[in-house]
């Protein structure tokens, strides 16, 4: 009576491929190396969704290496520039990033959570014999091609503002105060003073330290942050330009919750508007859903009491994973996801937290 049946109705890309490697086949001509790009914010314990995304990327790397006989490397973009703490001063919202906010242990938020991400990556590197490289956002943004891509977007500010931000028409490029790190959430007191194809000069205002100027150019060193749509658009422009220079194919490996309307709006519409005819390569990994069909989220977004009712803390918090499911749990999840990657109908779909729990406990599942 309690049999769990699993069905695989065909959906989307499943109609046109029978191997996941075929998704990038039309872009592989003349390419010497494949780079798979993962990204994560280091603001929380990784959860089962993060693990699924990371294990998928390593399994894909192995598979693409076999299929194309080309080197494959994973680049993990870790974001320390994002909100660590939000404050409101005189009715304006400001934030400090994960580097500047300390936890109760006296270390920064980034320092607290980074070891858990590294632990997953090191395990996978050893198992899969695939190299990875961590790239922090503040390192990544020093690259002149990244800054060039950002300048290109800002040069087209009026053309793109309502595409990227239908609500307010803001393209949120922000600069932390050089004295205290406070950064404006909305860009009410941030003004672009100079906007040429070579450089940007922006004036921002800290509620404590007054106005300050920041610069973006080939050689600039001022730190900046971008909101999510801007960060994504700049990233694909950067990947497309670095691929041209290096004969690589960069593929973003993102969670499935970023698929659908998002890439149409944030990548394709802006590219068309800017008369660019190359397109980014992206492979979306299965999203892990809660019982109601919503993406399993970080507690910082849905509240600290969220998901406690499952009594499956290991799914939400990687630091509890081995206490709950043991090393064998990791093996089971790893084997499961490695099977998905070899079968598009298993990969191009989502899974619930109940399904994952059944896999982790080695329950009997009937695959139809
Ligand atoms: Zn300040």
Summarize the structure.
The protein has helices at 48-68, 109-128, 137-140, 144-155, 157-164, 228-246, 261-273, 299-302, 313-316, 318-341, 344-347, 353-360; strands spanning 4-6, 33-41, 72-79, 83-89, 92-97, 132-136, 173-174, 183-184, 191-195, 200-206, 210-216, 225-226, 248-255, 281-285, 288-289, 351-352, 365-367.
3D structure, described in words:
- The chain has a single domain, classed as HUPs (Rossmann fold).
- Helix 1 (48-68) runs parallel beside helix 10.
- The protein starts with a strand and ends with a strand.
- The protein is built from twelve helices and 17 strands.
- The chain has a five-stranded parallel sheet with strand order 6-3-2-13-14, with helices on both faces.
- With 368 residues, it is of the alpha/beta class.
- Helix content is 38%, strand content 23%.
- The protein binds zinc ion.
- Zinc ion (ZN) is lined by residues 177, 179-180, 182, 206, 208-209.
